[in-house]
Specification:
The protein has 185 residues and is mainly alpha-helical. It has one domain: Fumarate Reductase Cytochrome B subunit, CATH 1.20.950. The chain has 5 helices and 4 strands. The strands form 2 sheets. A two-stranded antiparallel ribbon has the order 1-2. Helix 3 packs antiparallel against helix 4. It is elongated. The structure holds protoporphyrin IX containing FE (HEM) (2 copies). One protoporphyrin IX containing FE binds next to helix 1, helix 3, helix 4 and helix 5. The site of one protoporphyrin IX containing FE has 21 residues, from helix 1, helix 3, helix 4 and helix 5.
Length: 185
């Protein structure tokens, strides 16, 4: 079923919450594990990040096929525009997060293991089993840099997005949030 003005399809609602909540969780775990050097969490973060990538790709395809949601109310141009810009930042950011993470881990020689399925092998230094050798240092650093910048950009975009959703729900009392919860408006 496609999205309509009155009701979003189950697929839109399921993908929004599955991907959205996973991204929030992965950002929190990513920052926590990096700041506190909790290396035990790295493999879990990477495995969940790669797994959710499949849903992220399907969501982008679904959004292109379905078009963007029609706004519930008749708001000012600037409000429509800012909502649209943030939706684009969010959807492009969700794509770039796993891509940059995989580039960093893959090219950095750290390997990518998804719950026991080895996608990219580790490249250990034969002379020191605790060191990894990068396949390409420049590309790996670029991936790391993008992954880190995305953390900051996406936290701001998500906070603005949630503030917008709450504004519609509490102040405007329109059906914007209800529709994303799968209800008819
Ligand atoms: C899919 C969504 C993902 C999100 C939202 C996400 C988010 C984050 C965030 C916010 C950080 C902390 C960055 C910083 O503070 O500089 C981080 C770190 C990291 N992420 Fe991800 N990540 C995702 C997927 C992945 C994937 C798929 C991989 C690799 C296969 C990956 C590998 C890493 C690594 C290795 C670090 C630690 C970086 C370091 O120690 O310098 N991430 N992630
Ligand atoms: C708990 C937090 C969240 C709430 C309350 C929320 C709420 C909403 C609502 C009400 C809409 C519908 C907007 C409309 O009809 O114009 C929406 C759409 C959207 N949200 Fe969220 N959202 C949350 C988290 C996220 C996160 C974390 C992301 C991405 C990382 C995200 C990405 C999007 C995108 C791309 C859309 C456009 C429609 C779509 O592609 O599904 N949201 N959100």
């Amino acid at each position: 079923m496609k999205d309509t003005f009155e009701k979003f399809s189950g697929m839109t609602v399921a993908l929004h919450w599955l991907v959205g909540l996973s991204i929030i969780g992965l950002i929190a775990v990513g920052i926590y594990m990096e700041e506190n050097e909790v290396y035990a969490l790295y493999d879990i973060h990477k495995a969940f990040g790669v797994s959710i990538f499949a849903f992220i790709l399907y969501r982008v395809f679904w959004r292109i096929k379905n078009g963007w949601p029609t706004p519930v109310g008749d708001y000012s141009k600037i409000e429509h525009l800012s909502a649209k810009v943030i939706h684009y930042v969010l959807i492009i950011g969700t794509l770039l997060f796993p891509i940059s993470g995989m580039i960093y881990s893959g090219f950095g020689g750290y390997g990518i293991d998804v719950f026991g399925l080895q996608l990219v092998a580790e490249n250990l230094d034969p002379n020191n089993a605790e060191e990894f050798i990068a396949h390409n240092e420049t590309i790996a650093s670029l991936g790391k840099e993008i992954h880190g910048i995305l953390g900051d950009v996406m936290i701001i975009a998500i906070l603005l997005h949630i503030a917008g959703a709450l504004k519609h729900h509490v102040m405007d009392k329109d059906g914007t949030l209800k529709r994303m919860l799968g209800k008819s408006i």
